[in-house]
Amino acid sequence: MRFKMMAAALAASVTLPFAGVASATDLEVTHWWTSGGEAAAVAELAKAFDATGNHWIDGAIAGSGGTARPIMISRITGGDPMGATQFNHGRQAEELVQAGLMRDLTDVATKGKWTEVVRPKSLLDSCTIDGKIYCVPVNIHSWQWLWLSNEAFEKAGVPVPKNWDELVAAAPALEKAGIVPLAVGGQPWQSSGAFDVLMAAIGGKDTFLKVYEAKDAEFAAGPDIAKVFKAADDARKMAKNTNVQDWNQATNMVITGKAAAQIMGDWAQGEFQVAGKTAGKDYSCLPGLGLNPMIATGGDAFYFPLLKDEEKSKAQGVLAETLLDPKTQVAFNLKKGSLPVRGDVDLNAANDCMKKGLDILAKGDVMPWTDQLLSQDTQKQKEDLFSEFFANQSMTPEDAQKRFADIIGSAD
Amino acid sequence: MNVANASVSVQDLSLSFGSVTVLKSLNLDVAEGEFVVLLGPSGCGKSTLLNCIAGLLDISDGRIFIKGKNVTWEEPADRGIGMVFQSYALYPQMTVEKNLSFGLRVAGTPKDEIDKRIARAAEILQIGPLLQRKPAALSGGQRQRVAIGRALVRDVDVFLFDEPLSNLDAKLRSELRVEIKRLHQKLANTMIYVTHDQIEAMTLADRIAVMRGGVIQQFDAPQVIYNRPVNRFVAGFLGSPGMNFLDGRLENDGGWHFVAGELKVPLASYDFEREPSPGASVFGIRPEHVGLNSGSGWPFTAQASVDVVEPMGSDTLVWLKLADQNFTVRVTSERAPQSGESVEIGFDPMRASLFDEQGNRL
Amino acid sequence: MSVSMKSERPSRLFRNLNAKIASVPMILTALVVFVGGTAWTVLYSFTNSRLLPRLNFVGLDQYYRLWAAPRWLVSIENLLIYGVLSLIFSLVIGFLLAAMLDRKIRFEDTFRTIFLYPFALSFIVTGLVWQWLLNPEFGIQGVIRGLGWESFNFDPLYNSSIVIYGVLIAALWQGTGLVMCLMLAGLRGIDEDIWKAARVDGIPTWRTYVSIIIPMMRPVFITTLVIIASGIVKVYDLVVAQTSGGPGIASEVPAKYVYDYMFFAQNLGQGFAASTMMLLTVVIVIVPWAYLEFGRRGRT
Amino acid sequence: MSNPAVLSSTIAGADAVRGELSGPRGPKPRSVLSRRNIFLYGTLFLVAVYYLLPLYVMVVTSLKGMPEIRLGNIFSPPVEITFEPWVKAWSTACTGLNCDGLSRGFWNSVRITVPSVILSIALASVNGYALANWRFKGADIFFTILIVGAFIPYQVMLYPIVIILREIGLYGSLWGLVLVHSIFGMPILTLLFRNYFASLPDELFRAARVDGAGFWGIYLRIMVPMSMPIFVVALIIQITGIWNDFLFGVVYTRPDTYPMTVQLNNIVNSVQGVKEYNVNMAATLITGLVPLIIYFVSGKLFVRGIAAGAVKG
After folding, report:
1. Is C11 within the bounds of a domain?
2. Do B190 and B29 touch, CB atoms closer than 8 A?
3. Coil, helix or strand for B339?
4. Which of B32, B189, B357, D112 could form a disulfide with B7 if both were Cys (CB 3.0 to 4.6 A apart)?
5. From residue B250, how far is each of B236, B247, B278 by CA, in Å?
6. The domain at A26-141+297-355 falls in which architecture?
7. D228 touches chain B (CB under 8 A)
8. Cβ(B52)–Cβ(B15) under 8 Å?
9. DSSP at B188
10. pTM for the model
């Protein structure tokens, strides 16, 4: 019986791909949003775009930006560009723009008065090269969050910490209860990102900018940063039993109470939501690790390769408009767990954590993030360093700091 | 011989692979309808020469004419040759009939013509019942017959055989040898036949070309080659057991003599090729040209002691010590001596071959 | 000479013309893709190309940086360990299995199929399965601990110092079947008389293998070596699927460094410099040998 | 002057193969229950377990439900067999917005594999034939380059290939990918074919030339029909290699023609909350099914084909 059903299912699904062909302009959109919360958010964008009479062809490539980006870049440089593609805004697409491969969106932006609605303004600045606008920011993602499992602390019999230092203090109790105090997945960008968060939280905005914007290697080798490395050392000790790779598996450890905390961007919130958890009740969040509440204005943006096809170019314009449409912004960002890029939208539906973020944003406590400040090359070197630092307990914070300073010294 | 009336003419042919020269400025003219055997030890270049004639190897220098036509750079198929290989080289996936007709089909010969030729070849070679079989289902002799048939159907002027019988056992070999001879008599085609087997060479050839080191040593009728070898190599290569060679000196004391130790052979009856001069030389005589204890009647006799006696059925080989050198004599079995015995040998110096220090015939 | 020279020696170029035409794809592949691609890569390794290749020369900067990068050094070390061990183990295991199968055993087909099937699976699949089997929580370690041996410790993928051996286990699982197959084919190609002769001479079996059979199988070993070695240099998918280079950078390999720096870090120049180093090593090791093996031979 | 040992087996390619595979050649084992036999079979059995374990775990896991996986150990057989993971992997697993599982990729893989296998084998066999039988000046140099090319990591070549494909206008098309597969399959396949053709008796080739067959005539009418064993080997290697390819499939095509492995990667790597190991394993098995079946069915032909000359240097 079961076999028959399966066979039928197989047969049905085989014929499907050849069935539906859309009549409106098809636009292929590539991105690397494939986790539960991310996929749900993309679905909102697709829905909004389809509603304009066009058709969103989804080109999701799993495995984070590292897998997806080379494919996207190859296709753009190889002369077979997609209709639109996700990049982290910042410096990733700079050269593609300079090579004249990307479409200038200034006309669409002027029409939609983007300069007025996009907030904070720095987002649009990242999209602007030589006075022309080349990308559409869709959300603000900030890294500086500490996610806490209320259940884990309850189990360990300690109060839910209010900041990073309290978490460090609670670690022994957590470990005794068989709970991993801090979940850090094995992917290199996670440890690297966690370190940046620690720097911003412990050192503050000025320290952060001095290292990453001014690229002051001497300062990076100095005592201020040594403090950050000390904290990173605490972090890796707490994280040493994590044993997972993906960020959302690490998040899942917090969701299920196997781990007490995770330093992760606001996109983690999407996972809590998908799991049906409520902010404040099941989990807590501490922006800026509870030390230094700030919002980094990193985030995602869509870029539009220059296409020859008139129809498609027109559809690109429509998509660009749609992405910044207030309704789309709300729907997308609620699912994604990120903050909208326009200040004039109604986010009543937002949960506790999101509201915290919005408040900080409203106060203007914003800072740029490494995506905007550092080249991918420097980022990668940093990732190599911190993934080694977090995995290899025998590497001293001093050694790591020395290498870190070298990287900053040669950064561009 | 003039190129125009030679069936196959090879002129100044050289072949080298890199720095290795395999054939050196070689000349060979084969007459119409002639059966020529290329004979020599392995590595002498005889198969290479055949492959050059067939067009299977690109030569480095020289020219090749077949039927008066310069075919030096023609494709093998356009040279009017048929070739039979040592390993038969039958196409394993084709039936005998397909094997026979492959070349004709490639050339686009009409179907009825193909059938006619196959029928004829099958009749000549008596392979009619095998036509629908695959080569794997044939015996060695049958395979070789098919291989010959493949050359036959092409209706060519020149047949090339590349050691066609070496993969067969002794009995089959002699059977097929006769058959090839019969075939030649019947077809009267020009045939060039490569072998290292001197019996095949002697029995089949109109003329034999003895080769060594890429050079033809002697090219003549089998009897001439056998009886008047031009050099020591040719003399030693033909005949089994090989020719006896005695090292000694040529001396002239009132007539030419060959002297080795106590042995002194008068050479009055020897037909010198050129004016001899005194000095080191080699005296050669074939074992079958020597008599043993046969009394008088020989122009020359000498005493020798028997070393080993080898009965070979029809006759017996007697290994002797003559002037402290090895010497063999072939005698009929009933006249065989005992080992250790002292015997008298006799021969006619007229039948001997004398060579100078360089091994060339005197 | 009574006959005129009709056919002149044809131009060298047109000799074997069809063979040359048929070899055009090969020649193009060799020249355009392999030589051309390599030359292009080497050229751009002297530039500071980032996301897109640009001819902005910076001399040997990329190489200085490469050899100063701890991750590159770890990668090289890993490739050495992995390469040497996987070469030795796959040859030894492959040969032993083949020798065992060659001993007139029953169920030879079954055993052979079992040893060979992993080769049908991609490295991605291999990596995933072994990642799972070696997972300390519910893989082999977990199961054995569950049986009561609490202190049992086997977590190669989560232990920096032995992680490369964890990768090796999976690689051997996937690759030895093919080696066995090649070896078995080689053993089957050896004349049975050799065995008889060895037996008559009273040579022990192991000695026959070592002194007679293995030397006779030289061509098989060479083909096998080409296949294994080319796989080793290229190892990438397996590491990505199994460990992603972790923990930390403990299981990084050169091919992954190349890929990561070209595409993640968007530093083509650095990726090309690493590629060039890999190519250089390959060329130094392979070319003299390949030329001797495949080039100088022929014309028999 | 050929070696008689080779010549004796020249009667037929098929014949030669049969001869070589007449059976095991090793020394004859002693009585059934000798210590030696126990050791032999014992070792083989243990090794077989090592080889089968991962497959067993994959199959067993793919038939379990998630709760059972979380509780039980990976080696225990499923308490309750469910085909749910298989159905999900095939038809409903999601990547981004596309929730049609592996089914879409399956046909793409077929469309990629078939022409790639045909073209790559056609090219490599002609190359091998030209190298073995029609040696021309310089051929060896190209062949050496090709063999060295086998050692170049694909990642290194990604970028130059993008440029080449762009210049010839094949980037992003199915034919571009077919070409890439043919190029990268060329070194090893050419080596195999060259070795095989070189092991065939040269006299057959000469006989065919005397019969008037040209380069292509000999290839098609003499060589190919005699070379089924090596074609089978090449077929198996290529089908497996191309079917399992991920890198080229993802870089040189577009999403609507992504092969199955890309979908596998998407399913396995796009973690939605908890890793669904059962679905992952089912997806893995489904993806590996085509090459696995080929191996289980034709394993014998594979060894036979390799024995028939592919490894004779």
Report:
1. no
2. no
3. coil
4. B32
5. 20, 10, 5
6. 3-Layer(aba) Sandwich (3.40)
7. no
8. yes
9. -
10. 0.82
